[in-house]
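Researcher: Next entry in the queue.
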Amino acid sequence: MQISLILMEEIAKLFLIMFMGYALVKTGLLKTQESRVVSVILVYLVIPCMIIHAFQIDDSPKVRTGLIFAFAVAAIVHALFLLFTAILRRPCRLSTIEQLTVIYTNAGILVVPLIQALLGQQYVVYSCGFLVVQLILIWTHCRSKLTAEKGIQWKKILWNINVISILIGAVLFFCHIPLPSVIDDTIQMTGDMVGPMGMLLAGMVIADIPMKQVFAVLGNYKTVLLRLVVYPLALLGLMKLVHATGMVADGKNILLTVYLACITPACATVTSMAQLYHKDAAKSSVLYVLTTIFSIVTMPIMIGLYTIWL
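Model: Structure for this entry, 310 residues:
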């Protein structure tokens, strides 16, 4: 359970930063609309630096096998989440926004700082598998659900800054090209801001949402329960059933990087896309806030169960 305590401490730090962002808006020092500046810095500078630095590790058969394993597990996890949602959609009366909330997670912001704290920088590279799979599905399945349009937005996928960063990092990794220490250290320093900036942004975004609106609707807790408890528990049971941790060397730690991504709150990108396509963005924002708040309790519990059961 020690790893759960460490995780709880790290999550508490991130949530305190979120409160700082909330306070900046509530005190009138900044406006929620100005969070776009933070968002641009995060998406186009901080996250790409984090991804490129993650690939600056020594190449070895073990690492390559771990990367393939992480990508495969990420693909299977998303397939399972899509299947679970298709089964539960009618019995649980899930709206389109609720379905997308339980499928897609906020892994891009929360996972990297947590992996760094729990496992070390050398494991961050394995998180890229989950990010790539989710990104592809967001611009195919998620977009299709919000717009009722079919087809794959290849341009959106291939020209996404995260995908470009992963390709650059992968080329450097497989071609054994280390960056000069000054450049790598600069990239690392910038990438290390991903957690604090992400939570600062979250605090600014939720500051304009009335808390009464967030907590008063009982039906919202159904979605929170599915995203933070039911899906993670179902996934944990399946991992145990197939003995997933024994499939590759260091499988438990590599699998943990994927599982961490699976138990995070609702994806902020879904809210952004709901705003873009005029599909109940208010509901998506409320669910984003609720899952974010409750994840400070549920994430350590899920990781505690992971360490005990697997």
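Model: The mean pLDDT is 87.
Researcher: Noted, moving on.
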